[in-house]
Design goal:
Blueprint: H1 7-22, H2 26-30, E1 33-41, E2 58-61, H3 62-72, E3 85-99, E4 102-114, E5 121-134, E6 137-147
Parallel strand pairs: 1-6
Antiparallel strand pairs: 1-2, 3-4, 4-5, 5-6
Length: about 160
């Protein structure tokens, strides 16, 4: 395993992921995931919790992620039809560790959501990734979204991939 992973390489990957999500290219986004990927949104009072012992807002394995994408892309998904407009800002990208072909990464984010007939919502928090190195690129093995809000009610329904 090469140990020449740079922060710039990781940033480029995260920026590409953010662009796919903001452009609602969810099928392409699925291509960034490993076959055993997981997507977690822990509760804001236990952000480092384990999804097996703590009630998470989201705890999706790859099967559930694919089903979520399928639902979100359907015109019958009234919670996201028409789709929200989102714009993500990613910052403070840090490589926390490298173990073989796995890279643990942290980053901060702000995601602005624009939805018809609703006020603009702002989601602030941190991403935690476990990326799998495949050649000169990465795939997402685990994606954890830690929302910084003290209470989630004011954020409304989070019906898109944060």
């Amino acid at each position: 395993m090469r140990n020449d992973i740079s922060r710039a390489d990781v940033e480029d990957f995260l920026y590409r992921e953010a662009a796919l999500l903001d452009e609602w290219k969810l099928e392409e986004w699925l291509g960034l995931l490993t076959d055993d990927a997981a997507y977690y949104v822990p509760p804001n009072d236990h952000p480092e919790g384990d999804h097996r012992t703590t009630l998470f807002i989201l705890a999706d394995d790859i099967v559930r992620i694919r089903e979520r994408v399928k639902r979100l892309m359907s015109p019958d998904c009234h919670a996201e039809y028409p789709h929200s407009r989102t714009r993500r800002m990613i910052s403070n990208v840090r490589i926390l560790g490298v173990d073989g072909d796995l890279v643990t990464v942290a980053a901060n984010f702000v995601c602005n959501r624009f939805r018809r007939y609703e006020r603009v919502r702002e989601y602030v928090g941190a991403y935690r990734y476990v990326l799998k190195r495949i050649g000169d690129d990465f795939r997402i093995k685990e994606r954890r979204v830690i929302i910084d809000a003290h209470e989630l009610g004011s954020l409304g329904a989070v019906s898109f991939i944060l």
